[in-house]
Specification:
Blueprint (H helix, E strand, L loop, with lengths): L2 E3 L1 E3 L2 E3 L6 E6 L4 E7 L3 H20 L2 H17 L1 H12 L3 H22 L7 E4 L3 E9 L2 E5 L5 H14 L3 E5 L6 H13 L6 E3 L4 H10 L5 E5 L2 H11 L5 E5 L5 E4 L5 H13 L11 E5 H16 L19 H16 L3 E4 L3 E2 L10 E2 L2 E4 L6 H4 L6 E7 L2 H8 L4 E2 L1 E5 L3 H10 L4 E4 L14 E2 L2 E2 L4 H7 L1 E9 L1
Parallel strand pairs: 1-5, 8-9, 8-11, 9-10, 11-12, 13-14, 13-21, 14-19, 18-19, 21-22
Antiparallel strand pairs: 2-3, 4-5, 6-7, 7-25, 12-24, 15-18, 16-17, 20-23
Length: 481
C-alpha cells in the first residue's frame, strides 16, 4: 500500500471529498512513491467552515498563549529535523544536506521568529497637540489563504503561515502538489503540539483546482501567494475584483554584478552558490552574471573550472552538491532553454545535458550545471526565468552599462553586487531595480527585513512587520480633545 498524503481539516487528517489521489514522484528515482489528495472546492469549503469556526477563539486568545503553541510546533520541527530533511529530499530531489541546513532549519526559525514577534507588535498613536488623538488598532484579518511553491516546500509554506497564525488569523494552506510531503508531516506535528482544530487547514491538490478554489472562496479575505509570475497574474485577476488583500511573491531573473575590484575568491565561491544551490531552483538565484571586462576572462575560466568540479548525484549522499530536478517536465523545460540559448547564438562552456546516474538514481531527473556565454542581455535566455542550474555570463565596460543590463528584464526580485568600493556599492544598489540587494554576499538572511520584488516579481512585501501588517486590518480611531 502506498502512503497517502491526506488533507488536514478541522484538526483531523481526512480523505479528499473526491476520493481521488494524484501520483507523487520521487524525482531522484523517477518513480511514484506516494499519493497526494486530489482536492477540490468541496474540501476548500470544509476547510473554510473549520477556519471560520476557529477564528473567534484563536484571534481572541492572549498572544502569549498563541506564542506558546507555535513554539511547541517549532520545537517539534527541531526534534524531527532529520526525518523532515530526508522527506523533503525524497519529495523534491534536493540534497538532504541542503534540506537540513536551509529548508527545515529555516522552517523552524520562521515559526519561532513570528511566534516571538507578535507579542511585540504595537499599534501607532498620532497626537495632534490640543486638538485630537488618533490611535490605530490592527485586527487579524480573518480566514486567509496561503499558497506556496515546490522549490523550498516547508520553508516557504511556514514563511507564510507563521505570520498569519501569529497575527491571529486562521489559515487555509495549499502546498504545491509536486512537493506535499513535509506539509503533511507538519500537519501531524501541529496536531501533536495541540494547535486548536481549524486554526490551520491544509488542502492538497492541483493549483488550478484546489488552489483556484481558495482564491475564489468569498470568505477568504487575503491571499499570500508565492509562485510563478504567470500564475500570479491569474490569481490577481480573480482576487482583485473581489477586493481581497494580496501579497504576491513571484519569479526572478536576478543579476549578479561583479566589478574588477571585488574580493575575487569570495565573489567566485558565492557566485557558484548563487548559481547552482538547490539545482538553481531558488527564486533568488543569480542567473545572469555580469563581469567587468578586465576581470571577465579570469572569472569565466575559474568559474567554468569550478562548475565542472561540482558533484551532481544521489541527494542522500552528504558530499553531493546538486541533487535531482523537481520533475521530468521541469528538467525538459530547463533543457529546452539550453537549446534556445544555442539557437540564440550562445556558447555552452560546460554542462547543458541531462545526466544519467547509476543504481538507485538511474531513472532520476539530473542535469549538469551549465554555463553559457556569448549572448546579449535582450535575448529570451537572458529575459525569461529558467529556474534551473543554468547561468549566463556577460562582460560589461562601465557601471552605467552594468546597471542597464541588470534592469533590462521585466523582473526585479534580487541582485548581488561585488565590489570593495564602498561608494560604488551603494550607488549601484540604489539604481538597481530589485526589492532585495546583497552587497558582497548572497542569501544572507535577517527575518526582520522586507522581502519581495519589484516589477513583475511581485506586489507587497513579506518578512518582519510587513507580514504581520499584511495579515491584520488597520482601523484608526480619532478622539477629539
Ligand atoms: P506555480 O506558480 O506553478 O505554483 C505555485 C503554487 O500555486 C503551487 O502551489 C500551485 O499548485 C499553485 N497554483 C497554480 N495555479 C493556481 C491557481 N490558478 N490558483 C491558485 N493556486 C495555483 O509556481 P511553481 O510551484 O512552479 O514555483 C516556481 C516559481 O515560484 C518560480 O517562478 C519562482 O521564481 C517562484 N518563486 C518565487 C519566490 C519569491 O519569493 N518571490 C520564492 C520561490 C519561488 P500546484 O503546483 O499544485 O499546481
Amino acid at each position: 500500500m502506498m502512503q497517502k498524503i491526506l488533507n488536514y481539516i478541522d484538526g483531523k487528517l481526512v480523505e479528499p471529498k473526491s476520493g481521488k489521489y494524484l501520483d507523487n514522484y520521487n524525482p531522484s528515482e523517477g518513480k511514484v512513491y506516494s499519493l497526494v489528495a486530489d482536492s477540490d472546492e468541496r474540501d476548500v469549503s470544509d476547510a473554510v467552515i473549520a477556519a471560520a469556526k476557529a477564528f473567534p477563539a484563536w484571534s481572541a486568545m492572549p498572544t502569549e498563549e498563541r506564542t506558546k503553541i507555535l513554539l511547541r510546533v517549532a520545537d517539534l520541527i527541531d526534534r524531527d529535523l532529520e526525518k523532515l530533511a530526508l522527506a523533503e529530499s525524497i519529495d523534491n530531489g534536493k540534497t538532504v544536506k541542503f534540506a537540513r541546513s536551509v529548508d527545515i532549519y529555516r522552517a523552524a526559525s520562521n515559526i519561532r521568529f513570528y511566534a516571538t514577534a507578535s507579542p511585540h507588535f504595537a499599534s501607532e498613536a498620532h497626537v495632534n497637540e490640543g486638538d485630537s488623538v488618533n490611535y490605530t488598532t490592527r485586527f487579524p484579518i480573518g480566514v486567509v489563504g496561503c499558497i506556496s511553491p515546490w522549490n523550498l516546500p516547508l520553508y516557504l509554506f511556514t514563511w507564510k503561515i507563521a505570520p498569519a497564525l501569529a497575527a491571529g488569523c486562521t489559515v487555509i494552506g495549499k502546498p504545491s502538489e509536486l512537493t506535499p510531503m513535509t506539509a503533511f508531516l507538519f500537519s501531524q506535528l501541529c496536531i501533536e503540539a495541540g494547535l486548536p482544530a481549524g486554526v490551520l487547514n491544509i488542502v492538497h491538490g492541483l493549483g488550478g483546482k484546489a488552489g483556484q478554489a481558495i482564491i475564489e472562496h468569498p470568505e477568504i479575505t487575503a491571499i499570500s501567494f508565492t509562485g510563478g509570475t504567470v500564475t500570479g497574474k491569474k490569481i490577481a485577476a480573480t482576487a482583485a475584483p473581489m477586493f481581497k488583500k494580496l501579497s504576491l511573491e513571484l519569479g526572478g531573473k536576478n543579476p549578479n554584478i561583479i566589478f574588477a575590484d571585488c574580493d575575487f575568491e569570495q565573489a567566485m565561491k558565492t557566485s557558484l552558490l548563487s548559481s547552482f544551490s538547490n539545482q538553481g531552483e531558488i527564486c533568488l538565484c543569480g542567473s545572469r552574471i555580469f563581469v567587468e571586462r578586465n576581470l571577465y576572462n579570469k572569472f569565466v575560466e575559474e568559474f567554468v573550472k569550478r562548475t565542472k568540479e561540482l558533484n551532481v548525484g544521489d541527494p542522500q549522499n552528504e558530499t553531493t552538491q546538486l541533487g535531482a530536478m523537481v520533475s521530468e517536465a521541469h528538467l525538459k523545460k530547463v533543457l529546452g532553454y539550453v537549446a534556445l540559448a544555442k539557437e540564440e547564438g550562445g556558447k555552452i562552456l560546460t554542462g547543458g545535458n541531462q545526466l544519467k546516474m547509476e543504481g538507485r538514481c538511474a531513472n532520476g531527473y539530473f542535469m549538469e550545471p551549465t554555463v553559457i556565454v556569448g549572448l546579449n542581455e535582450k535575448c529570451r535566455t537572458n529575459q525569461e526565468e529558467i529556474f534551473g542550474p543554468v547561468v549566463t555570463i556577460m562582460p560589461f565596460d562601465t557601471e552605467e552599462q552594468a546597471i542597464g543590463f541588470a534592469n533590462s528584464t521585466p523582473y526585479g526580485l534580487a541582485a548581488s553586487i561585488w565590489t570593495e568600493n564602498l561608494k560604488r556599492a551603494h550607488r549601484v544598489a540604489h539604481q538597481v531595480k530589485s526589492g532585495i540587494i546583497w552587497i558582497n554576499c548572497w542569501l544572507h538572511r535577517d527575518l526582520r527585513t522586507p522581502f519581495g520584488g519589484m516589477k513583475q516579481s511581485g506586489a507587497g512585501r513579506e518578512g518582519g512587520w510587513e507580514a504581520i501588517r499584511f495579515f491584520t486590518e488597520a482601523k484608526n480611531v480619532c478622539v477629539k480633545l
